[in-house]
Amino acid sequence: MAVYKDKWNGYKGDTWRVATYYKDWKGVRRKHEKRGFATKKEALAYEREFVAKTSKNINMVFDTFIDIYMGDIKPQLKLSTYVTKENIINTHIRPYFENKSLSEITSTDILQWQNELLGVRDDDGKGYSQTYLRTIQNQLNAIMNHAVKYYDLPKNPCIANKKMGKAKAKEMLFWTRDEYQKFSEEMKRKPISYYSFQILYWTGIRCGELLALTRADFDFDNQMLRINKTFQVIKGEEIVTSPKTEKSNRRIDLPEFLCDEMQDYLASLYKVDDDSRIFQVTKSYLHHEMDRGSKAAGVKRIRLHDLRHSSCALLINLGYSSVQIAERLGHESVTITERYSHLYPSVQKDMAKKLDSVFKEDEDDD
After folding, report:
1. Separation CA 40–CA 19 (nearest Å)
2. Which of 229-243, 251-265, 328-342 has the highest mean pLDDT?
3. Are 310 and 201 in contact (CB under 8 A)?
4. Alpha-carbon distance 22 to 279, whole Å?
5. Residues 320, 185: one domain?
6. Neighbouring-strand partners of residue 15
7. What band does 301 get if pLDDT is binned at 50, 70 and 90?
8. Whose CA is closest to 67, among 92, 49, 41, 42?
C-alpha cells in the first residue's frame, strides 16, 4: 500500500493518489486506487480508513463504521424502517461520535451523550418523550452490538450505562363505544372522513393499511376485507408496500352494517378502478379531523393510533380472547394483545360475586 504524488493530466495541478491491495469477502486479493486528493495528509487519512474498513479494524472512525453498519443491514429491512433508522442515527448519534474511533468510545462518552439528549428542550420547554429517548438508545446499542458480533469489538460500551427513557408509552387512551358514536356523528358532514373512521374503529386496522385500501380489497358477497399492503410517504414519495409484519396479511370479517356503508361509499366515488386507492387523504388530514371531531363532540382527544386500541378494547369487553383478537388485528404475538387487557374496567368484583354465589350454592346443597 502506498500514497503517491499523481501527475495524471486528468487533474489540474499536483494531486495525490492512493494505491493499495485488500481481500474481499471471498478472500480474493484485489487492488484499490483513488485519485484526486489535494494533500498527502488527506490521501493518508483515506488510506488508513480504507484499510481499517476492509480489515475489520476497530480503530476505524465511528462515522465510517456507521456507513458499514447501514450497508450491512439495509438489504434486511423494509425501506420505511431503514429510513427511520437512518434519520435517528444521522440526527442523534452520528454528529456526537463521528470523529471518535470505534474502539475509543467508552461508557463515559455514552453517559455524556445521554445527558446531552436528556437536556434538549424545545421552545415550549419540552424534552424528547421517554419512548423516543429509548428508541435512540436502542439504536446506539444495535450499532455497538453489530460491531461486537461481526467486527470483533471486544465489548459493547453501552452495557455499563442505564438505558435512557422508557420502553412503554404513557397509559393507552381509547374511546368507549358511546364516545366514538358521538365523534362519528360529527364526521358525517364529510363522507370521506366518516367512512375512514368507521373502518378504523370497527376493524382496528392500522392507518397505513386504511390508506392503501382499494375497491378490490372488499368482498361484499362474503362480507370480508383483505389486508395485504400499507401506504406510506417516504422522503416525499407516496409508496404502497407490504404490510408491517407477516401476520398483518389477513382477511377480516365485516359486520353487515359496515358492508352496507362501504358499498354506499364506493358507489359515490367517481371513476375509481379496482386497484385505485379509495381513501385519497393523508395521515395529517385524519389527525386534523380527529382534532375537529373530538372538540365538536365533547370527547377527549386521542391519537389516531388509539382508534386501534379502542377497537381492541371493545372486543375485549365483548368477551373475545386474546388469540381471537390478535388474529383480527394482525398482531405478531398474543402478548401484544394482552397489553390492552387493562383498557376496560376490572372484572375482579364480578368474579368475586360469582365465586361467592358458587360457594353459597355448595353450602345450600350441604
Report:
1. 13
2. 251-265
3. yes
4. 54
5. yes
6. 6
7. very high
8. 49
